[in-house]
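Hey L., structure's done. Input below.
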Amino acid sequence: MTSIKWALFTMFFFAACGQPPAYVERDVKYIDVPEKPELGDDSPKNNNATPIKPSDPKGVDPDVEVIGGSGTPASIPPVKPVITAEVCQKQGLKISAPNLIFLVDNSGSNKNSINAVGTDCPQQSGSTCVGDPVRKLTVLSVAKDLQKIDLDSADAASTSLLSVVSYAGSANTVMSQVSTGSTFSIPTLTTLMDFAKTPGGSTYYVSAFDRAKAIFAGSSSSVSARQKVIINLSDGFPSNKPQDVFNSAKSLRDAGIKMITVIYTKDADFAAAAANWEATTDFSEAEQDWVMGRGRSSLISDISDEAFLVKNVEKLPDVVSSIVNKYALGCK
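Output:
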């Protein structure tokens, strides 16, 4: 009798609710982001400063948070690639490769000091990191992904272009608009990324943004057709005045350049990272509120199309590879 009742319940349930999904992809992780509230008055709203807590923690990476963005709120990219040459070919399209610039924070907080443990210095000998910093491994991981996609697409006109800028107290162009196609040298990039082993200095976002602007300005007409994307990898908040950072980022975004910020920490959430920054700055209270997102959206959110916080730096390569696949690639 029980089995008959169960069968009747199942029949009526699916008749009312529709058929179950044809498949469930269990290893893809998303974080659902609530819509921003409408601004019904002139009072500031804090839409992005509080870490987003998913209602169902199962299948969600607790080490990755969405911390804002001025565009439509987005979920954490899936672990599996969404865009591949094969996916585009099945639609009768070609893969659309990006003109991608990595801005890599090489400030002193990446290494150990008397008062703090560095965010990205596996081991340290004097002022030099021993072993490969995760920032280096992240850029190499993305470069390998892009090279594979470029080779799979078999279309020289669709190859990605990769640039790397290191910044701390000033900015330096490490690599400028190099095609990641068949002639791209991973060993050369591996050597160039060794700058990440000697961090030191402040965190001047504006210097990095200015250098990115100069790189894009030097693009040829054929290069200009590619989607321009900046991924800023930083372990902290800018040393520049907030308004200067906002103005510099706005000029890039107004030119159609997609700005993605990824903050990486060692177990610190957004509020803790912001508090650490506040203790070392002499900015005005209003400027601190803007950077930290107190009573309003944070500066990181305001300068970014998408913004993420990675609390386990070891996960940075996988997270950033997923971000590149979701936000920098496409079919056309």
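Residues 2-59 have pLDDT under 50 and may be disordered. DSSP finds eleven helices and eleven strands in the chain.

-- N.
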